[in-house]
Amino acid sequence: QIGFTTDPRMARSSPYPTDVARVVNAPIFHVNADDPEAVVYVCNVAAEWRSTFHKDVVVDLVCYRRNGHNEMDEPMFTQPLMYKQIRKQKPVLQKYAELLISQGVVNQPEYEEEIAKYDKICEEAHARSKDEKILHIKHWLDSPWPGFFTLDGQPRSMTCPSTGLNEEDLAHIGQVASSVPVEDFTIHGGRS
Length: 192
Fold this sequence. Notes:
It contains 7 helices and 2 strands. The protein has a domain at 1-67. The protein has helices at 8-11, 36-53, 80-88, 92-102, 108-129, 139-142, 167-177; strands at 28-32, 58-62.
């Protein structure tokens, strides 16, 4: 599904987001993203194609997002039937771990040790990120904001030009927009 709220039958004329690559006659490799070894194989083929022929190639990971269109939303609001099915699916890591364990490539303690090592790396990076005071972003991303931050990483100013509305009107709009529209109205539990 390409549109996260739009039904696929109404969204576009093709089921594949990669069909745009047909315009430049690029080969398109569709691969099941639930199969990590197939994904690696297809990516190697794509890299070899590009290296050999010096032309574009597209890899289409045929997959789903477990937590909605940006992996942070509650997708049950817009696609409840699809996400009921997705919740029944085993995550790729779990599937692949079970396969490797069944083949004797790794055992359960080795798998758990690797997961713990990765979790530790993430936790340590998260802890270090709290000590950062200055944004260290690539020049091309940071360049539109010269002088935005002071040397200790704080914004130089939080002022903004007048919107033309007084604060009371803005507060009223905010209250109305964030309040329940009628009495005896049950708000969805995921948003209350």
